[in-house]
Amino acid sequence: MRLRLAGKSLLNRRGTILLTILSLTIGILLVLGINHLRTQVKESFNNTLSGTDLIVGARGGALNLLLYSVFHMGSSSHTIRWQTYEELAKHSQVKWIIPLAMGDSHKGHRVVATTPDFFAHYAYGKKQNLSFSAGKSFSGKYDLVIGAAVARKLGYQVGDKIVLAHGLAQVSLAKHDDSPFIITGVLSPTGTPVDKSLYISLAGMAAIHEGWQSGVQIPASKKQLPQTAQKQVLQDAHEHDHSGEEHHDHHAHDQSLSAIFVGLNNRASTFAVQRQINQYTGEPLQAIIPGLALAELWQLVGSVETAFNLIAWLVVIAGLLGMTTSLLASLSQRQREFAILRSLGAGPWYLFVLVILEVLFICSSAILFAIALLTLLLWLLQPWLLSEWGIQLSLNFMTQQQGYYLLAILLSSVVLSLVPAFNACRRALGDGLSVKY
To answer: How confident is the model at residue 83 (pLDDT cuts 50, 70, 90)?
Structure first.
Protein backbone atom coordinates (compact mmCIF):
# COMPACT_ATOMS: atom_id res chain seq x y z
CA MET A 1 0.00 0.00 0.00
CA ARG A 2 2.75 2.47 0.93
CA LEU A 3 4.76 1.75 -2.23
CA ARG A 4 1.59 2.16 -4.32
CA LEU A 5 0.97 5.55 -2.74
CA ALA A 6 4.61 6.53 -3.37
CA GLY A 7 4.24 5.50 -7.02
CA LYS A 8 1.05 7.52 -7.41
CA SER A 9 2.89 10.45 -5.87
CA LEU A 10 5.50 10.22 -8.61
CA LEU A 11 2.80 10.03 -11.29
CA ASN A 12 1.09 13.05 -9.82
CA ARG A 13 4.36 14.98 -10.17
CA ARG A 14 5.25 13.45 -13.54
CA GLY A 15 5.72 16.80 -15.26
CA THR A 16 8.37 17.97 -12.85
CA ILE A 17 9.96 14.52 -12.69
CA LEU A 18 10.22 14.25 -16.49
CA LEU A 19 11.82 17.69 -16.79
CA THR A 20 14.33 16.78 -14.08
CA ILE A 21 15.14 13.49 -15.85
CA LEU A 22 15.55 15.35 -19.15
CA SER A 23 18.01 17.88 -17.72
CA LEU A 24 20.04 15.12 -16.09
CA THR A 25 19.96 13.04 -19.30
CA ILE A 26 21.48 15.89 -21.31
CA GLY A 27 24.27 16.37 -18.79
CA ILE A 28 25.09 12.65 -18.55
CA LEU A 29 24.94 12.36 -22.35
CA LEU A 30 27.50 15.16 -22.67
CA VAL A 31 29.83 13.58 -20.12
CA LEU A 32 29.70 10.12 -21.73
CA GLY A 33 29.77 11.46 -25.29
CA ILE A 34 32.70 13.85 -24.84
CA ASN A 35 34.78 11.26 -23.02
CA HIS A 36 34.04 8.60 -25.66
CA LEU A 37 34.74 10.97 -28.54
CA ARG A 38 38.00 12.09 -26.95
CA THR A 39 39.13 8.49 -26.44
CA GLN A 40 38.13 7.40 -29.94
CA VAL A 41 39.76 10.40 -31.65
CA LYS A 42 43.01 9.72 -29.81
CA GLU A 43 42.84 6.04 -30.71
CA SER A 44 42.02 6.86 -34.33
CA PHE A 45 44.94 9.30 -34.60
CA ASN A 46 47.32 6.90 -32.87
CA ASN A 47 46.29 4.07 -35.20
CA THR A 48 46.79 6.12 -38.37
CA LEU A 49 50.48 5.26 -38.64
CA SER A 50 52.16 2.17 -37.25
CA GLY A 51 55.62 0.75 -37.80
CA THR A 52 57.13 3.98 -39.18
CA ASP A 53 60.09 4.99 -37.04
CA LEU A 54 60.80 8.45 -38.48
CA ILE A 55 59.12 11.06 -40.65
CA VAL A 56 61.55 13.33 -42.47
CA GLY A 57 60.64 16.74 -43.85
CA ALA A 58 61.94 20.23 -44.36
CA ARG A 59 62.95 21.98 -41.16
CA GLY A 60 60.01 23.64 -39.44
CA GLY A 61 57.35 22.68 -36.94
CA ALA A 62 57.13 19.03 -35.91
CA LEU A 63 53.34 19.16 -35.64
CA ASN A 64 53.00 20.70 -39.08
CA LEU A 65 55.11 17.91 -40.58
CA LEU A 66 53.03 15.27 -38.80
CA LEU A 67 49.71 16.83 -39.82
CA TYR A 68 50.36 17.28 -43.52
CA SER A 69 52.33 14.05 -44.10
CA VAL A 70 50.15 11.65 -42.11
CA PHE A 71 46.76 13.33 -41.69
CA HIS A 72 46.86 15.42 -44.87
CA MET A 73 46.03 18.63 -43.03
CA GLY A 74 47.73 21.77 -44.27
CA SER A 75 50.74 21.78 -46.57
CA SER A 76 54.52 21.87 -46.42
CA SER A 77 56.25 25.22 -46.56
CA HIS A 78 59.45 23.75 -48.07
CA THR A 79 60.40 20.59 -49.93
CA ILE A 80 63.18 17.99 -49.92
CA ARG A 81 65.61 17.41 -52.80
CA TRP A 82 65.57 14.02 -54.49
CA GLN A 83 69.31 13.66 -53.92
CA THR A 84 68.67 13.83 -50.17
CA TYR A 85 66.19 10.97 -50.47
CA GLU A 86 68.77 8.88 -52.34
CA GLU A 87 71.43 9.54 -49.72
CA LEU A 88 69.05 8.66 -46.89
CA ALA A 89 68.07 5.43 -48.64
CA LYS A 90 71.75 4.34 -48.54
CA HIS A 91 71.98 4.76 -44.75
CA SER A 92 73.08 1.53 -43.07
CA GLN A 93 70.25 1.64 -40.52
CA VAL A 94 67.44 2.29 -43.03
CA LYS A 95 65.36 -0.82 -43.73
CA TRP A 96 62.80 0.78 -46.03
CA ILE A 97 61.97 4.28 -47.17
CA ILE A 98 58.87 5.83 -48.75
CA PRO A 99 59.00 9.17 -50.60
CA LEU A 100 55.88 11.37 -50.63
CA ALA A 101 55.08 14.32 -52.89
CA MET A 102 51.86 16.28 -52.43
CA GLY A 103 50.25 19.38 -53.83
CA ASP A 104 47.44 18.22 -56.13
CA SER A 105 43.89 17.14 -55.36
CA HIS A 106 40.72 15.70 -56.84
CA LYS A 107 37.37 17.09 -55.71
CA GLY A 108 38.75 18.01 -52.30
CA HIS A 109 40.70 14.77 -51.81
CA ARG A 110 44.49 14.81 -51.52
CA VAL A 111 46.65 13.30 -54.25
CA VAL A 112 49.85 11.69 -52.98
CA ALA A 113 52.69 10.76 -55.31
CA THR A 114 54.78 7.88 -54.02
CA THR A 115 56.23 4.51 -54.99
CA PRO A 116 54.73 0.99 -54.77
CA ASP A 117 56.73 0.60 -51.54
CA PHE A 118 54.00 2.68 -49.88
CA PHE A 119 51.51 -0.18 -50.21
CA ALA A 120 54.11 -2.70 -49.04
CA HIS A 121 55.41 -0.93 -45.94
CA TYR A 122 52.74 1.54 -44.77
CA ALA A 123 50.95 0.13 -41.73
CA TYR A 124 48.14 1.33 -39.48
CA GLY A 125 46.46 0.15 -36.30
CA LYS A 126 48.40 -2.76 -34.82
CA LYS A 127 50.83 -2.97 -37.74
CA GLN A 128 48.12 -3.85 -40.25
CA ASN A 129 49.26 -3.54 -43.86
CA LEU A 130 47.22 -2.00 -46.65
CA SER A 131 45.21 -4.29 -48.88
CA PHE A 132 43.19 -3.91 -52.06
CA SER A 133 39.47 -4.50 -52.22
CA ALA A 134 39.67 -4.32 -56.02
CA GLY A 135 42.45 -4.07 -58.59
CA LYS A 136 46.14 -3.62 -57.83
CA SER A 137 48.87 -1.04 -57.26
CA PHE A 138 49.86 1.43 -59.96
CA SER A 139 52.51 0.33 -62.43
CA GLY A 140 52.17 2.74 -65.34
CA LYS A 141 52.80 6.45 -65.38
CA TYR A 142 49.11 7.37 -65.49
CA ASP A 143 47.84 4.66 -63.15
CA LEU A 144 46.08 5.68 -59.94
CA VAL A 145 44.98 4.02 -56.68
CA ILE A 146 42.13 5.45 -54.61
CA GLY A 147 41.09 5.04 -51.00
CA ALA A 148 37.88 3.34 -49.89
CA ALA A 149 36.14 6.59 -48.90
CA VAL A 150 36.92 8.18 -52.28
CA ALA A 151 35.48 5.19 -54.11
CA ARG A 152 32.37 5.17 -51.94
CA LYS A 153 31.73 8.91 -52.00
CA LEU A 154 32.41 9.53 -55.70
CA GLY A 155 31.23 6.17 -57.01
CA TYR A 156 34.54 5.29 -58.68
CA GLN A 157 35.70 1.83 -59.60
CA VAL A 158 38.63 0.16 -61.36
CA GLY A 159 38.96 1.31 -64.96
CA ASP A 160 37.43 4.77 -64.54
CA LYS A 161 39.31 7.79 -65.88
CA ILE A 162 39.66 10.89 -63.72
CA VAL A 163 41.37 14.27 -64.04
CA LEU A 164 43.46 15.70 -61.22
CA ALA A 165 43.47 19.37 -60.22
CA HIS A 166 46.44 21.56 -59.37
CA GLY A 167 46.40 22.72 -55.77
CA LEU A 168 44.34 21.72 -52.75
CA ALA A 169 41.14 23.74 -53.25
CA GLN A 170 37.76 22.01 -53.23
CA VAL A 171 36.97 23.61 -56.58
CA SER A 172 39.99 24.29 -58.82
CA LEU A 173 40.13 25.93 -62.23
CA ALA A 174 43.67 24.67 -62.87
CA LYS A 175 43.22 21.07 -63.95
CA HIS A 176 45.48 18.58 -65.67
CA ASP A 177 42.94 17.88 -68.41
CA ASP A 178 45.61 16.77 -70.86
CA SER A 179 46.76 13.92 -68.59
CA PRO A 180 43.85 11.82 -67.28
CA PHE A 181 44.59 8.93 -64.93
CA ILE A 182 43.09 5.45 -64.93
CA ILE A 183 42.08 3.83 -61.63
CA THR A 184 43.91 0.52 -61.26
CA GLY A 185 43.12 -0.24 -57.63
CA VAL A 186 40.82 0.51 -54.71
CA LEU A 187 42.19 0.13 -51.18
CA SER A 188 40.26 -1.63 -48.42
CA PRO A 189 38.83 0.59 -45.65
CA THR A 190 41.30 1.49 -42.91
CA GLY A 191 39.54 4.22 -40.91
CA THR A 192 42.54 6.51 -41.58
CA PRO A 193 43.23 9.43 -43.97
CA VAL A 194 44.38 6.81 -46.49
CA ASP A 195 40.70 6.17 -47.24
CA LYS A 196 40.23 9.77 -48.41
CA SER A 197 43.34 10.01 -50.59
CA LEU A 198 44.44 9.18 -54.12
CA TYR A 199 47.87 7.73 -54.95
CA ILE A 200 49.92 8.07 -58.12
CA SER A 201 53.52 7.41 -59.08
CA LEU A 202 56.25 10.01 -58.83
CA ALA A 203 56.72 9.73 -62.59
CA GLY A 204 53.03 10.54 -63.03
CA MET A 205 53.33 13.57 -60.78
CA ALA A 206 56.32 14.82 -62.79
CA ALA A 207 54.58 14.18 -66.12
CA ILE A 208 51.46 16.22 -65.34
CA HIS A 209 53.53 19.18 -64.13
CA GLU A 210 55.68 19.56 -67.20
CA GLY A 211 55.21 23.08 -68.47
CA TRP A 212 53.81 24.38 -65.16
CA GLN A 213 55.37 27.30 -63.33
CA SER A 214 54.14 28.74 -60.01
CA GLY A 215 50.88 26.83 -60.30
CA VAL A 216 50.13 28.07 -63.83
CA GLN A 217 50.42 26.09 -67.03
CA ILE A 218 52.64 27.81 -69.58
CA PRO A 219 51.33 27.10 -73.10
CA ALA A 220 53.96 25.90 -75.56
CA SER A 221 54.81 28.48 -78.19
CA LYS A 222 54.21 27.39 -81.73
CA LYS A 223 56.78 29.00 -83.94
CA GLN A 224 56.96 28.60 -87.70
CA LEU A 225 60.17 26.78 -88.55
CA PRO A 226 61.81 26.47 -91.90
CA GLN A 227 61.04 23.26 -93.76
CA THR A 228 64.52 21.84 -93.21
CA ALA A 229 64.27 22.62 -89.51
CA GLN A 230 60.85 20.93 -89.31
CA LYS A 231 62.30 17.79 -90.85
CA GLN A 232 65.15 17.84 -88.35
CA VAL A 233 62.70 18.20 -85.45
CA LEU A 234 60.58 15.31 -86.71
CA GLN A 235 63.67 13.18 -87.18
CA ASP A 236 64.88 13.93 -83.64
CA ALA A 237 61.43 13.21 -82.26
CA HIS A 238 61.34 9.87 -84.05
CA GLU A 239 64.80 8.92 -82.83
CA HIS A 240 63.99 9.74 -79.21
CA ASP A 241 60.42 8.57 -79.10
CA HIS A 242 61.37 5.18 -77.71
CA SER A 243 63.13 6.83 -74.78
CA GLY A 244 60.09 8.84 -73.64
CA GLU A 245 59.56 6.71 -70.56
CA GLU A 246 63.15 7.21 -69.44
CA HIS A 247 62.72 10.92 -70.07
CA HIS A 248 59.80 11.14 -67.65
CA ASP A 249 61.52 8.97 -65.08
CA HIS A 250 64.47 11.33 -65.21
CA HIS A 251 62.18 14.26 -64.45
CA ALA A 252 60.50 12.24 -61.69
CA HIS A 253 63.87 11.85 -60.02
CA ASP A 254 64.51 15.57 -60.36
CA GLN A 255 61.34 16.59 -58.54
CA SER A 256 61.17 17.62 -54.92
CA LEU A 257 59.47 15.68 -52.12
CA SER A 258 57.12 16.77 -49.35
CA ALA A 259 58.07 14.13 -46.77
CA ILE A 260 59.77 10.77 -46.33
CA PHE A 261 58.64 7.84 -44.18
CA VAL A 262 61.53 5.79 -42.79
CA GLY A 263 61.62 2.33 -41.26
CA LEU A 264 64.79 1.29 -39.44
CA ASN A 265 66.51 -2.05 -38.99
CA ASN A 266 66.81 -1.51 -35.25
CA ARG A 267 64.42 0.76 -33.34
CA ALA A 268 67.10 1.30 -30.71
CA SER A 269 68.95 3.44 -33.25
CA THR A 270 65.97 5.78 -33.78
CA PHE A 271 67.34 8.68 -31.77
CA ALA A 272 70.81 8.35 -33.30
CA VAL A 273 69.46 8.41 -36.86
CA GLN A 274 67.13 11.27 -35.96
CA ARG A 275 70.07 13.31 -34.69
CA GLN A 276 72.08 12.59 -37.85
CA ILE A 277 69.22 13.74 -40.07
CA ASN A 278 68.67 16.90 -38.02
CA GLN A 279 72.37 17.70 -38.39
CA TYR A 280 72.45 17.01 -42.14
CA THR A 281 74.42 19.74 -43.91
CA GLY A 282 73.10 19.20 -47.43
CA GLU A 283 69.84 21.02 -46.68
CA PRO A 284 67.82 21.94 -43.57
CA LEU A 285 65.93 18.81 -42.51
CA GLN A 286 64.09 17.57 -39.48
CA ALA A 287 63.17 14.04 -38.46
CA ILE A 288 60.34 13.43 -36.04
CA ILE A 289 59.19 10.34 -34.16
CA PRO A 290 55.43 9.94 -34.85
CA GLY A 291 54.55 8.83 -31.32
CA LEU A 292 56.32 11.75 -29.65
CA ALA A 293 54.78 14.22 -32.10
CA LEU A 294 51.32 12.85 -31.33
CA ALA A 295 51.99 13.21 -27.61
CA GLU A 296 52.87 16.85 -28.26
CA LEU A 297 49.62 17.25 -30.18
CA TRP A 298 47.53 15.86 -27.30
CA GLN A 299 49.38 18.10 -24.86
CA LEU A 300 48.51 21.06 -27.07
CA VAL A 301 44.80 20.25 -27.18
CA GLY A 302 44.66 19.13 -23.55
CA SER A 303 43.24 22.45 -22.38
CA VAL A 304 40.42 22.15 -24.92
CA GLU A 305 39.56 18.67 -23.65
CA THR A 306 39.53 19.97 -20.08
CA ALA A 307 37.21 22.82 -21.06
CA PHE A 308 34.71 20.48 -22.76
CA ASN A 309 34.75 18.07 -19.81
CA LEU A 310 34.25 20.93 -17.39
CA ILE A 311 31.23 22.18 -19.34
CA ALA A 312 29.72 18.68 -19.39
CA TRP A 313 30.18 18.21 -15.66
CA LEU A 314 28.73 21.66 -14.95
CA VAL A 315 25.60 20.62 -16.85
CA VAL A 316 25.36 17.47 -14.71
CA ILE A 317 25.84 19.43 -11.50
CA ALA A 318 23.21 21.93 -12.58
CA GLY A 319 20.80 19.07 -13.21
CA LEU A 320 21.48 17.51 -9.81
CA LEU A 321 21.06 20.84 -8.03
CA GLY A 322 17.83 21.44 -9.93
CA MET A 323 16.57 18.03 -8.81
CA THR A 324 17.43 18.82 -5.19
CA THR A 325 15.74 22.22 -5.38
CA SER A 326 12.64 20.65 -6.90
CA LEU A 327 12.42 18.10 -4.10
CA LEU A 328 12.85 20.76 -1.42
CA ALA A 329 10.16 22.91 -3.00
CA SER A 330 7.73 20.00 -3.16
CA LEU A 331 8.05 19.05 0.51
CA SER A 332 5.51 21.66 1.62
CA GLN A 333 3.00 20.38 -0.95
CA ARG A 334 3.52 16.79 0.17
CA GLN A 335 2.61 17.25 3.87
CA ARG A 336 -0.78 15.58 3.33
CA GLU A 337 0.94 12.68 1.56
CA PHE A 338 3.40 12.26 4.44
CA ALA A 339 0.56 12.44 6.97
CA ILE A 340 -1.29 9.63 5.20
CA LEU A 341 1.85 7.51 5.11
CA ARG A 342 2.37 8.13 8.85
CA SER A 343 -1.23 7.05 9.51
CA LEU A 344 -0.49 3.80 7.70
CA GLY A 345 2.41 3.12 10.06
CA ALA A 346 5.31 4.68 8.16
CA GLY A 347 7.97 6.09 10.45
CA PRO A 348 10.17 9.16 9.84
CA TRP A 349 13.00 7.00 8.56
CA TYR A 350 10.66 5.45 6.01
CA LEU A 351 10.08 8.92 4.60
CA PHE A 352 13.82 9.50 4.69
CA VAL A 353 14.48 6.38 2.58
CA LEU A 354 11.52 7.17 0.32
CA VAL A 355 13.01 10.51 -0.74
CA ILE A 356 16.40 8.90 -1.42
CA LEU A 357 14.77 6.14 -3.51
CA GLU A 358 12.95 8.77 -5.55
CA VAL A 359 16.27 10.48 -6.29
CA LEU A 360 17.86 7.16 -7.26
CA PHE A 361 14.91 6.45 -9.57
CA ILE A 362 15.28 9.85 -11.26
CA CYS A 363 19.04 9.53 -11.63
CA SER A 364 18.95 5.90 -12.82
CA SER A 365 16.28 6.77 -15.40
CA ALA A 366 18.42 9.65 -16.66
CA ILE A 367 21.44 7.33 -16.97
CA LEU A 368 19.46 4.73 -18.94
CA PHE A 369 18.02 7.38 -21.26
CA ALA A 370 21.48 8.89 -21.78
CA ILE A 371 23.01 5.50 -22.66
CA ALA A 372 20.17 4.71 -25.09
CA LEU A 373 20.34 8.14 -26.72
CA LEU A 374 24.14 8.07 -27.06
CA THR A 375 23.97 4.60 -28.65
CA LEU A 376 21.44 5.89 -31.17
CA LEU A 377 23.52 8.98 -31.97
CA LEU A 378 26.69 6.93 -32.46
CA TRP A 379 24.86 4.52 -34.75
CA LEU A 380 23.52 7.41 -36.84
CA LEU A 381 26.73 9.49 -36.94
CA GLN A 382 29.25 6.66 -37.34
CA PRO A 383 29.14 6.47 -41.20
CA TRP A 384 29.29 10.26 -41.57
CA LEU A 385 32.23 10.70 -39.19
CA LEU A 386 34.12 7.89 -40.94
CA SER A 387 33.58 9.28 -44.45
CA GLU A 388 34.05 12.98 -43.66
CA TRP A 389 36.65 12.95 -40.89
CA GLY A 390 38.13 9.46 -41.01
CA ILE A 391 37.21 8.84 -37.37
CA GLN A 392 36.09 5.32 -36.50
CA LEU A 393 33.72 5.49 -33.51
CA SER A 394 32.97 2.29 -31.64
CA LEU A 395 29.40 1.68 -30.46
CA ASN A 396 30.77 0.14 -27.28
CA PHE A 397 31.40 3.24 -25.19
CA MET A 398 30.87 1.70 -21.74
CA THR A 399 34.45 1.48 -20.50
CA GLN A 400 35.66 1.21 -16.93
CA GLN A 401 36.20 4.97 -16.82
CA GLN A 402 32.66 5.60 -18.03
CA GLY A 403 31.40 3.29 -15.29
CA TYR A 404 33.28 5.34 -12.71
CA TYR A 405 31.67 8.50 -14.09
CA LEU A 406 28.17 7.02 -13.78
CA LEU A 407 28.89 5.76 -10.25
CA ALA A 408 30.12 9.23 -9.28
CA ILE A 409 26.90 10.75 -10.62
CA LEU A 410 24.77 8.26 -8.66
CA LEU A 411 26.69 8.85 -5.45
CA SER A 412 26.47 12.62 -5.93
CA SER A 413 22.71 12.37 -6.36
CA VAL A 414 22.44 10.37 -3.13
CA VAL A 415 24.56 12.90 -1.24
CA LEU A 416 22.46 15.81 -2.50
CA SER A 417 19.25 13.94 -1.70
CA LEU A 418 20.21 13.82 1.99
CA VAL A 419 19.14 17.46 2.37
CA PRO A 420 15.48 17.00 1.30
CA ALA A 421 15.41 13.55 2.98
CA PHE A 422 16.44 14.97 6.39
CA ASN A 423 14.02 17.82 5.89
CA ALA A 424 11.17 15.38 5.23
CA CYS A 425 12.18 13.29 8.26
CA ARG A 426 12.32 16.37 10.54
CA ARG A 427 8.94 17.63 9.39
CA ALA A 428 7.40 14.24 9.92
CA LEU A 429 8.66 14.19 13.51
CA GLY A 430 7.67 17.79 14.19
CA ASP A 431 4.27 17.87 12.54
CA GLY A 432 3.08 14.47 13.59
CA LEU A 433 -0.13 13.48 11.86
CA SER A 434 -1.55 16.96 11.69
CA VAL A 435 -1.77 18.79 8.42
CA LYS A 436 -1.42 22.56 8.56
CA TYR A 437 -3.40 24.71 6.14
So the answer is: very high
Higher pLDDT, 211 or 71: 71
Closest listed residue to residue 330, CA positions, set 308, 299, 359: 359
Nearest residue to 172 (alpha-carbon basis) of 238, 113, 105, 91: 105
What is residue 181's three-state secondary structure? strand
Closest CA to 17 of 372, 315, 369: 369
Q: How far are the Cα atoms of 212, 217, 310, 370 from residue 174, in angstroms, in the given order?
A: 10, 8, 47, 49
Report the relative pairing of strands 132-135 and 128-129 from DSSP bridges: unpaired
Across 176-258, the runs of DSSP E, i.e. the strands, are 181-187, 198-201, 212-213, 216-217
User: Which three-class secondary structure state does DSSP give residue 382?
Assistant: helix
pLDDT of residue 234: 36
231 has a pLDDT exceeding 50: no
| Longest alpha-carbon distance in the chain | 124
Q: CA–CA separation, 295 vs 244, rounded Å?
A: 47
- Name the pTM for this structure: 0.70
